[in-house]
Each structure stands twice: as C-alpha cells, then as structure tokens.
Amino acid sequence: MSGIEIKQVSKRFGDVTALDHVNICFQKNKIYGLLGRNGAGKSTLLNVITNRIFADEGEVLVDGEPSVENDRVLRKIYLMSEQSYYPPGMKVKEAFQWSAEFYPDFDKGYAEKTASLFQLPTKKKIHDLSTGYQSIFKICIAMAVNTPYVLFDEPVLGLDANHRQLFYKLLIEKYSDSPSTIVISTHLIEEVANVIEQIIIIKNGRIIRDETTEELLSKGYTVSGNAALVDRYTAGRKLLGEDTLGGLKSAYLLGSVKKEEVPAGLEVSKLDLQKLFIQMTND
Ligand SMILES: Nc1ncnc2c1ncn2[C@@H]1O[C@H](COP(=O)(O)OP(=O)(O)OP(=O)(O)O)[C@@H](O)[C@H]1O
C-alpha cells in the first residue's frame, strides 16, 4: 500500500506516554493538519516516522516497507523541524548546494526563487539568521526537496503575518503543480484551516480525530447576533462555547441547523475550527 502507515505505535519517555497505540495513515498526495496541544505527541510522532527516535512498539510502513533503519525509504521523507543539522558556519547558499547533493530531486533554482520572495539573505550564515528567517530558510529547503512526503513541524515559528501568508500561498501553488503528501503540525489552526484537507487531532498521545476538514466542520455551526436572542436560541441546545463582545454574542453549537428555524436577526455561519479544537482538547 502506498502512503505512510503508522501501526500501533507507542513511545514512552520514563513515565510519560508520548504516543499511545497510534494508528493512522498519511495517504499519497493529500495535505494533512496534525493538531494537538503542547506536549500532545506531535513532534514525537514525526520523529518516529523519520527514524530520529525509535518507537517502543508498533511499526511505520512507507509505501509498504518498514522505515526502521531503511535509508532508501527514509529518503522519500523530508522533515522540517526546529532541529538544525547544518554544520556551524555554513551559509544559506552553501546549504542549498549541500541539499542538492543529498536530495537527488532538490530544485536549487526553486529554493533560490523562494528565498528571494521571502528576501532571505542567502549570503548570511544560517546561525546568524533571526528566528523567523531560520524558519524561512528551512521552508525554502523543504519546498524544494521534492520528496514524496514532506512533514512540517511548526513551519511558521517566528514568521510575521505577511510571511505566513506567503508560505501558505507558495505551499498551495507548489501542491497544485506537483502534488505530494504534506503534513503540517501547527498551533495556528485558523490559518491552516483553508489549506488542509484532512485533520488529525492528537491528545495525550492518542488520535482523537482523523477526518476531512469538511466533515469535522459540518459537525456544528455558529449563531451570532444580539446576546439575549442568541441565549434564547441556544437554551437546550448542545453548546460548544461562546464569545461575547458588547451586546453581541457568537455561540458555537454542535449538530446541524435548518436556517428557517433560526430566529430573524441571528446570523448562521460555519463552525470555527479553532473553537472546535479548543473544545475537543480541553481538560
Ligand atoms: N526526549 C524526551 N525526553 C523526555 N520526554 C520527552 C522527550 N521528548 C518528548 N517528551 C515528552 O513527550 C510528550 C510529547 O512531546 P512532543 O514534543 O511530542 O509534543 P508536541 O505535541 O510536539 O508538543 P508542542 O506542541 O509543545 O511542541 C511530552 O510530555 C514531552 O515532555
């Protein structure tokens, strides 16, 4: 079977269970959002997939082959993460050259073009870059490696809003031109909501949701308007949460809605992914 299959994977650090019998499959040519609160197990999962750490139990299959100590399989996957594996003193443009030697399909021209769009100073040493530009440097590499699987662990760490928007735009353009399997682990949920097709939510090392963004968002709806009217409407309904601003209120509800059942003066809209996430992962 093609894709990355994670089968019954568990990982413990002392008495912390970082991954607890995780079963998921990252299919070919799909964009996934890997969401979870701090310490939920996201990085551990990405590190297990790429053999940076070993699982205590279970296995990872890449296109049907076990990934453990299998270089040929591991070369199909690129993980962008906080760790940097570049020699100290290496300049950005040298790292592009270096990557071209290591990843056979690395597109140096594309990396340079992306770098120039972000105004990344390629003559600088990697270690001298600001936090945001360190991330941008890694984004440029990850977008140019052209491996069938690209995993992003917190790709927009330190990026300003303009650069985050540019990253999402380039990612979608790249994916439309040459699809691959992309996994984005992030805390900026609303920002990726329009980019990701499938959402995987991990909580305390367990997968609690694995469904399309559309399916997940269709589980509820938002009703907004005059606070008193909203309260009257929500009484007796399954309320996920609410926000109040002055006399106005937005209520997040579970279930489906018939617009004609909502009183005049109230507005019905889609559920907000971040609100749903907070509700699902609270406690
Ligand atoms: N090398 C390690 N040694 C000990 N505990 C670890 C180690 N790596 C991870 N953990 C623990 O495993 C759990 C999962 O950590 P992980 O880094 O995978 O979470 P995360 O979802 O990526 O979190 P964040 O969003 O905060 O980056 C946490 O409790 C963490 O403290």
Brief characterization of the structure:
The chain has helices at residues 42-49, 71-74, 92-102, 108-117, 131-144, 161-177, 189-192, 213-217, 227-234, 273-281, and strands at 4-13, 16-26, 31-35, 57-62, 65-66, 77-80, 149-153, 181-185, 198-203, 206-212, 220-226, 239-245, 248-254, 267-270. By secondary structure, it is α/β, with parallel strands linked by helices. The strands form three sheets. Strands 6-7-8-3-9-10 form a six-stranded mixed beta sheet, with helices on both faces.
Describe this structure in words.
- GO terms for molecular function: ATP binding; ATP hydrolysis activity.
- This is ABC transporter ATP-binding protein.
- InterPro entries: AAA+_ATPase, ABC_transporter-like_ATP-bd, P-loop_NTPase.
- Helices cover 32% and strands 30% of the residues.
- The chain is an alpha/beta fold.
- The strands form three sheets. Strands 6-7-8-3-9-10 form a six-stranded mixed beta sheet, sandwiched between helices.
- Strand 4 (57-62) and strand 5 (65-66) form a beta hairpin.
- Helix 4 (108-117) packs antiparallel against helix 5 (131-144).
- The mean pLDDT is 93.
- The protein binds adenosine-5'-triphosphate.
- Residues 13, 16, 18, 36, 38-44 line the site of adenosine-5'-triphosphate.
- Adenosine-5'-triphosphate (ATP) is lined by residues 13, 16, 18, 36, 38-44.
